[in-house]
Write a structure and sequence with these properties.
The structure is a single chain. The chain is of the alpha+beta class. It has three domains: about 5-95, no CATH class; about 105-320, Hypothetical protein af1432 (Orthogonal Bundle); about 325-395, no CATH class. The protein has 15 helices and nine strands. The strands form three sheets. A five-stranded antiparallel sheet has the order 8-7-6-5-9. It has a two-stranded antiparallel sheet with strand order 1-4. Strands 2-3 form a two-stranded antiparallel ribbon. Helix 7 crosses helix 14 and helix 8 (about 190-195) packs across helix 11. The radius of gyration is 25 Å and the shape is elongated. The chain starts with a strand and ends in a 5-residue tail after the last helix. The relative contact order is 0.08.
Length: about 400
């Protein structure tokens, strides 16, 4: 058995313990449910190197972290938070073991699909979701442009499931835009979790609608209408207790300030607008996907001031031509965007088709700030395939 020292000074006298306390050699000092009865008792435990099993200790720390998060969100002072003692209760979710994911975006997408598709019957859903989130954060930190490139390319790939790609792209765009808007660091991870799980209850339906040639039927429309609340209910069934996460998911399509927690209204607004933006860019059997610039315009023109402000932040973060989307240059070449530019309309691109419509044997990096290589118009993803290795070689960057 592996043991870890417990923060004995943070254990409140008289409060029942949620774990067994052992000494460093594995001798039981206090049973779960018993309490430290005095300062002298505390010193005695400290002198004997009070420990918990590693699993119990990690779960207790997770419970403590959740307590601190709640205190911060409730507006308590730093002094009050500093005095917080170890909780007397540990939830089952605190014992969740994160699934380690080390692959690329397609690997992450595969794992997420295996959480979203089964819904209530998913195996180790919280551990897998935590692993997905950890890998998203890592890949995004390594290279945001490569991350966007991979996900926007996946969005146009009909051989890949749509639901997980949509969720991952929404999570990444929410994170980048939340930074732009200066949202609290402590809430941004929760917003990412909400983006990954907001459509949990309609994942299979999402994929079906991308290939369905007729309009949604009555039962499908009902499922679409109810999916925010149903997804939140599924998360509760997984053991989620974070009120902000449940609130953002449950109300991400309802921006009525009288509903849900008022403190999350801005996060709900961002998630809603990103969700709609990504959905508009995704092709269906019945329609082509909108170019990013038109998806942005549709979110801004005629929108309420708060919606327009957030939509403009999304567009500012991604640019009018995000990495992974296609454009035609004024010289007649067709290209794929690979890096956001200094302005929304000046990304770095890699030309893959010449002015005569013939594939280039060698892809060429173009700077759209130059007059000869300025962007003339966006190009749809249909029937436009590129070799990623050749794109990255032309861009002088490692593969995504």
């Amino acid at each position: 058995m592996i043991y870890a020292p417990v923060p004995i000074h943070r254990i409140e006298i008289g409060k029942p313990l949620p774990v067994h306390i052992w000494d460093a050699k594995g001798k039981l000092l206090l049973r779960k449910g018993q309490a430290i009865i005095s300062e002298q008792h505390r010193e005695h435990l400290n002198a004997h190197g009070a420990c918990a099993t590693q699993a119990d200790y990690k779960a207790w720390v997770h419970s403590y972290d959740r307590l601190v998060y709640t205190m911060v969100r409730d507006g308590m002072s730093i002094l009050q938070i500093a005095k917080a003692t170890m909780p007397a209760e540990i939830f089952e979710l605190d014992y969740t073991v994160s699934e380690n994911i080390t692959g690329d975006w397609i690997d992450v997408q595969t794992v997420l699909t295996h959480v979203l598709y089964p819904g209530a019957t998913a195996r180790n859903p919280l551990g897998r979701l935590e692993g997905v989130q950890n890998r998203v954060v890592t890949l995004l930190a390594q290279d945001a442009d490569n991350s966007l490139f991979s996900l926007f390319q996946a969005l146009g790939d009909k051989t890949l499931g749509y639901c997980a790609t949509h969720a991952l792209l929404c999570a990444v765009v929410c994170e980048l835009t939340a930074r732009k808007l200066g949202m609290d660091d402590i809430v941004r991870p929760v917003l990412m979790q909400a983006a990954l799980t907001m459509n949990l209850s309609m994942a299979k339906l999402q994929d079906m609608l991308t290939i369905q040639r007729n309009a949604p039927g009555a039962e499908q429309r009902k499922q679409i209408q109810q999916h925010p609340q149903t997804s939140a209910a599924l998360l509760r069934g997984f053991g989620v207790v974070n009120k902000d996460l449940l609130d953002i998911v449950a109300w991400h399509h309802d921006l009525d300030p009288t509903k849900g927690l008022e403190r999350n209204l801005e996060h709900r607004r961002l998630l809603h607008l990103v969700d709609v933006y990504v959905a508009k860019m995704a092709a269906r059997s019945t329609r082509a996907g909108l170019p990013a610039i038109k998806a942005a315009q549709s979110s801004i023109v005629g929108a309420a001031s708060e919606d327009a402000r957030v939509a403009m932040a999304i567009s500012s973060v991604l640019g009018f031509y995000p990495p992974g989307t296609y454009v035609q240059l004024v010289n007649g070449e067709k290209a794929v965007c690979v890096q956001r530019g200094t302005a929304a309309n000046t990304p770095m691109v890699v030309s893959t088709v010449n002015a005569q419509g013939l594939p280039l044997g060698v892809y060429v990096l173009r700077d759209t700030r130059e007059k000869n290589f300025a962007i003339q118009a966006p190009v749809g993803a249909d029937n436009f395939k590129v070799h990623h290795e050749r794109v990255f070689k032309a861009a002088g960057r490692p593969g995504a």
